[in-house]
Design a protein that fits this description.
By secondary structure, the chain is an alpha+beta fold. Helices cover 58% and strands 18% of the residues. This is ThuA-like domain-containing protein.
Length: 66
Amino acid sequence: MIIPHLIRRLGLVAVVGLVFAQAEEKQDHLRALLITGGCCHNYEFQSKALIEGVAKEAKVEWKVVN
C-alpha cells in the first residue's frame, strides 16, 4: 500500500514543479496595486518614493489608485 501513495506524491511533486517552472518562464515582472487616500499625508510623494525604491530591487508593473 505504500507504493500507490508514493507514486501519487511523486506525481503531485512533478506537476507542481512543472507549474512553477512555467510560471517563472511566462512572467518576468510582478504586478502590484497601490491604493492610497486620505487627508493628512503626501500620498503623491509617498507613492513615487515607494515605486522608485522598489524599482531598484525588482521589476514591477504598478497600478496606483488615489
